[in-house]
Design brief:
Number of helices: 4
Strand content: 25-35%
Oligomer: single chain
Largest sheet: 12 strands, antiparallel, barrel
Length: about 350
Amino acid sequence: MSASTPKSPVLFPAEKDNAPYRVQTSMLLDTGPSDGTDSTDSTGGASAPTDISHTFVADPADILPPTVLVLDGQVIYAENAPGVVLYESGLGLAGLTPATKRVELERLDYDGSTRVRKRGFYVLGHINKFLPSLFKPGPPEWFIYSLSSRTAPLGVFGWREGPTDAWEALPARIEKHEFHWADGAKDNVLFRARYKKGVCTWTDAEHKEVAKLYEASRLVVTEPLRRDLRDVLVALWCCYVWAQALNRHVPVPVPRGKNPVAHRGRIPGSPGHTSRAHRGATGRGTTQTTPPRRNSRTNNIEEGRCQVLADQDRDRQVDLTHAATLVQLNHHLRSARTPV
């Protein structure tokens, strides 16, 4: 993977009704050689001596057995072999912000020896959602496209979110720097994902279960899959993790030192907190708790609450006064009425 900073896509006004916005994909597709080779490593230097010849490419038709894939930061490995990295992303997916638009995903190919080669095979893309056309659906908000037909022969896919926590992977195309759904995309669903009762179930085009997701960082592949299909499944899983992190559906752990409650278990000024001055004044071995400190925000909230109650009482008194006035007026009208 190139050491240069990933470039964000550029949005242009659309010229057609079926393209609400246009994406400059020439920046997204600027990923170096199309055959997946890379002359530099992740540090920007020369290629590592452990790289094997570029002629070795894992067969996409290989059948891979069921396994449990674990996402740990930027690497993905099998749970039964944590020392063997299978995939690697350019950025940590769980910590991305909406400003990030592009993440490269690499696959590590092993030739049976100690040598290994990284191959970029998919790019994960995200575009902020805009209002679609009234007559045709807009381009995919999440999508993956291949860097090389040798390592990712299945092409471009869009990740469409449906109702009731469901998602579908549909074929897409890139035409004149624009992402569009492919013709007949609705009838060519590659994978489906459905979240229900705490479990996200993944099915293939024939509605056969292929994987389960009990937590975002662990993908349980339940059926044997071709290598190219599992590559797409892993890329879509990474898009799902990215989307859930942006939607705050997945809790992000707070780094140490950022949470004041975790520091010594007390917050200065809170009930039960003892200052050094009080400990010194009261003598060694004795403690004295300081009264809770009331900040201005709490006072403002209480003052606003009291003001609301006062306004309600005033309105109630006005209503009672109006009712009494109407009763008296009605009484005077009846007494002043003379019989005909």
